Amino acid sequence: MVLKMDRLPIELPKPKNPSANDAAAVQELLGGKFGEMSTLMNYTYQSFNFRGRNRLRPYYDVISSIAGEEYGHIEVVSYSINLLLTGTAKRGMDPQLGPLKDSTNYRNTRHFIASGQSSLPMDSMGDWWTGQNVFSSGNLKLDLLHNFFLECGARGNKMRVYEMVTDPTAREMVGYLLVRGGVHIVAYARALEHLTGVQVTKLVPVPDLDNRAFPETRKYEDQGVHRRLYTFSPSDYQQAGIIFNGPHPEDGQPLEVVFGAPEGVPAPDLEEEPQVNAAGAFDVDPEMFKDIAKKIGVEV
Amino acid sequence: MVLKMDRLPIELPKPKNPSANDAAAVQELLGGKFGEMSTLMNYTYQSFNFRGRNRLRPYYDVISSIAGEEYGHIEVVSYSINLLLTGTAKRGMDPQLGPLKDSTNYRNTRHFIASGQSSLPMDSMGDWWTGQNVFSSGNLKLDLLHNFFLECGARGNKMRVYEMVTDPTAREMVGYLLVRGGVHIVAYARALEHLTGVQVTKLVPVPDLDNRAFPETRKYEDQGVHRRLYTFSPSDYQQAGIIFNGPHPEDGQPLEVVFGAPEGVPAPDLEEEPQVNAAGAFDVDPEMFKDIAKKIGVEV
Amino acid sequence: MVLKMDRLPIELPKPKNPSANDAAAVQELLGGKFGEMSTLMNYTYQSFNFRGRNRLRPYYDVISSIAGEEYGHIEVVSYSINLLLTGTAKRGMDPQLGPLKDSTNYRNTRHFIASGQSSLPMDSMGDWWTGQNVFSSGNLKLDLLHNFFLECGARGNKMRVYEMVTDPTAREMVGYLLVRGGVHIVAYARALEHLTGVQVTKLVPVPDLDNRAFPETRKYEDQGVHRRLYTFSPSDYQQAGIIFNGPHPEDGQPLEVVFGAPEGVPAPDLEEEPQVNAAGAFDVDPEMFKDIAKKIGVEV
Amino acid sequence: MVLKMDRLPIELPKPKNPSANDAAAVQELLGGKFGEMSTLMNYTYQSFNFRGRNRLRPYYDVISSIAGEEYGHIEVVSYSINLLLTGTAKRGMDPQLGPLKDSTNYRNTRHFIASGQSSLPMDSMGDWWTGQNVFSSGNLKLDLLHNFFLECGARGNKMRVYEMVTDPTAREMVGYLLVRGGVHIVAYARALEHLTGVQVTKLVPVPDLDNRAFPETRKYEDQGVHRRLYTFSPSDYQQAGIIFNGPHPEDGQPLEVVFGAPEGVPAPDLEEEPQVNAAGAFDVDPEMFKDIAKKIGVEV
Amino acid sequence: MVLKMDRLPIELPKPKNPSANDAAAVQELLGGKFGEMSTLMNYTYQSFNFRGRNRLRPYYDVISSIAGEEYGHIEVVSYSINLLLTGTAKRGMDPQLGPLKDSTNYRNTRHFIASGQSSLPMDSMGDWWTGQNVFSSGNLKLDLLHNFFLECGARGNKMRVYEMVTDPTAREMVGYLLVRGGVHIVAYARALEHLTGVQVTKLVPVPDLDNRAFPETRKYEDQGVHRRLYTFSPSDYQQAGIIFNGPHPEDGQPLEVVFGAPEGVPAPDLEEEPQVNAAGAFDVDPEMFKDIAKKIGVEV
Amino acid sequence: MVLKMDRLPIELPKPKNPSANDAAAVQELLGGKFGEMSTLMNYTYQSFNFRGRNRLRPYYDVISSIAGEEYGHIEVVSYSINLLLTGTAKRGMDPQLGPLKDSTNYRNTRHFIASGQSSLPMDSMGDWWTGQNVFSSGNLKLDLLHNFFLECGARGNKMRVYEMVTDPTAREMVGYLLVRGGVHIVAYARALEHLTGVQVTKLVPVPDLDNRAFPETRKYEDQGVHRRLYTFSPSDYQQAGIIFNGPHPEDGQPLEVVFGAPEGVPAPDLEEEPQVNAAGAFDVDPEMFKDIAKKIGVEV
Question: Which residues of D touch B208 (CB under 8 A)?
Answer without folding.
Answer: 277, 280-283
